[in-house]
Design goal:
- Helix content is 41%, strand content 17%.
- It is an alpha+beta fold.
- It folds into four domains: 63 residues, N-terminal domain of TfIIb; 60 residues, no CATH class; 184 residues, no CATH class; 138 residues, no CATH class.
- The chain has a seven-stranded mixed β-sheet, with helices on both faces. A six-stranded antiparallel β-sheet has the order 1-2-3-4-5-6, covered by helices on one side.
- β10 and β11 form a beta hairpin.
- The radius of gyration is 31 Å and the shape is elongated.
- The model has no long low-confidence stretch (mean pLDDT 87).
């Protein structure tokens, strides 16, 4: 006798026919009717019991083929089994993307069964719907969001993941801040010689303002000079104010203390977001704060556009304005103590067209506003110490925050949509943490988990290092010219 297949609690498949439960079990008996009964196309009905000792379902009376007013359809029955299997796999393994589940579960399915199945998009949609049924209702505003469900306070392997929630301490004055990490993540972050801080808006849940991450570096044993950046801390912020960034950093600091991990980051790399810089200086006053050279160049180009000089900058027949702009950026590679003096030399040589750019650069990046008479002096918004890359160039260490931006771009592709709902986003954090744990294990085994930077980028690094090392052999402006020739925005 063929095996009785019970799909969930309300559907039964047997002998090429599909039955639906017609009423709840009574006295150990469950009543079923052919799925075509409700459309008045069949009258077949069956009754089953469950044998506990044998752990199987049995018929009170074996159904006969002529009970039905239509022929059996084995392919349709098998398609119901496949759909049920897909949903259970999606439910039991929430870390697997629907596409991956389809790839494994659909292998070997016959053409006849495929013809009875919905298309791939609808199958993936049904898997996502099953997962959503197991989630609490998504909050529509931060005011609707209470304590996080237990399943999101842990990693997929059951380890504590939620390390801070401002709601727990009733710290509502700074808004809602939620921070995720693990003990092992924190241990490795403490060992990292550089932290990379960055935020993104695109993959942020719709009730928060920003996803903020802290990445650290791990050495790849294949080449001890080759490091890979890994996300160790994930945070959800309700604003982009200094107090929120400081709250994240203090939560990390508190977790270090809780686990008796000593950590004072040597260097923190970020972009030119003033709120992040202020928070870093407030929480880690002894750490060197460094701003990304790539963003330094972007900021300069925006000023070129603002001043209406974009056409002159991109003029293929006259590269002088572009060249001089890159000489200003090259100030990042002179010794810190020489920045002001060499800027003055460069300023005296500046073309008239660049006057507004020179003034902006001097005010915001070099000298600020100098005190005169009763006018008080104002420090530059971004003093040279946070954008100078002289020591980084000499040692070949990181000069940009591109590793964190690269992670955010990849994470956005994985999430697959802008502004996912909260619990979908938290599920993606858990899956990303699962990938991090695998990566850490592979690194500990001496495996290489990231390709080396492209040769073009490595060659650029080597040229900048060589020129910077020979700083004392150049005339000041000649040094800037040598660096400027290698800068590409």
């Amino acid at each position: 006798m063929a095996e009785i297949k019970i799909l969930g609690e309300t559907k039964l498949v047997y002998g090429g026919f599909i039955y639906l439960r017609s009423k709840l079990p009574v006295n150990g008996k469950t009543y079923w009717e052919c799925q075509k009964v409700r459309r008045k196309e069949c009258k077949a009905r069956i009754i089953t019991t469950f044998n506990i000792s044998e752990n199987k379902h049995n018929f009170v009376r074996e159904p006969a083929l002529d009970d039905h007013d239509h022929i059996p359809n084995q392919e349709q029955c098998q398609s119901e089994i496949v759909k049920y299997s897909l949903k259970r796999k999606a439910e039991n393994q929430p870390q697997l993307p629907p596409t991956q589940i389809l790839r494994t579960e659909m292998a070997g399915v016959s053409d006849g069964v495929l013809s009875q199945l919905p298309n791939r998009d609808n199958l993936k949609k049904s898997m996502r719907q099953v997962r959503r049924k197991n989630l609490p209702p998504n909050p529509k505003t931060l005011f609707d969001l209470g304590t996080f469900p237990d399943q999101y306070q842990k990693t997929l392997t059951g380890e504590k993941f939620l390390i801070y929630d401002s709601l727990d301490g009733n710290s509502v004055s700074e808004g809602r801040v939620v921070v995720f990490s693990t003990r092992r993540n924190l241990e490795l972050l403490a060992e990292s010689d550089c932290w990379f801080l960055d935020g993104t808006f695109k993959v942020c849940p719709n009730i928060f303002t920003q996803v903020f991450t802290i990445l650290g570096t791990c050495k790849q044993h294949v080449d001890v000079h080759d490091t890979v950046a890994v996300p160790f801390v994930y945070a959800l912020l309700s604003s982009k104010e200094t107090v929120q960034y400081a709250t994240v950093l203090r939560a990390v600091q508190s977790s270090f203390n809780e686990h008796r991990i000593f950590c004072e980051p040597v260097k923190i790399m970020t972009d030119f977001e003033k709120s992040i810089i202020n928070a870093c200086e407030e929480v880690f006053p002894n750490s060197a704060i460094s701003c990304c050279f790539f963003h330094f160049g972007q900021s300069m180009y925006r000023q070129i556009q603002f001043a209406g000089l974009q056409a002159a900058y991109n003029d293929p027949d006259d590269r002088s304005l572009k060249y001089f702009t890159h000489m200003m950026l090259a100030l990042a590679f002179v010794p810190l103590t020489e920045v002001s003096r060499i800027f003055s030399l460069l300023k005296n040589d500046a073309p008239e067209a660049l006057s507004p750019i020179i003034e902006y650069f001097e005010k915001n990046y070099v000298l600020g506003v100098i005190a005169r008479g009763r006018r008080r002096g104002i420090h530059p918004r971004y003093p040279p110490k946070i954008w100078n890359q002289y020591q980084a160039a000499l040692t070949g260490s990181h000069k940009t925050n591109n590793v964190s931006e690269g992670w955010h771009n990849r994470f956005q592709l994985v999430v697959g949509k802008h502004h996912p709902d909260l619990y979908s986003a938290l599920g993606e954090f858990q899956k990303e943490q699962g990938d991090v744990e695998i990566m850490i294990s592979e690194l500990s085994l001496g495996r290489k988990v990231r390709a080396q930077p492209k040769r073009k980028w490595r060659d650029f690094q080597m040229r900048i290092m060589a020129i910077t090392a020979d700083f004392n052999t150049y005339q000041e402006l000649d040094f800037l010219k040598a660096i400027a020739h290698n800068i590409v925005l």
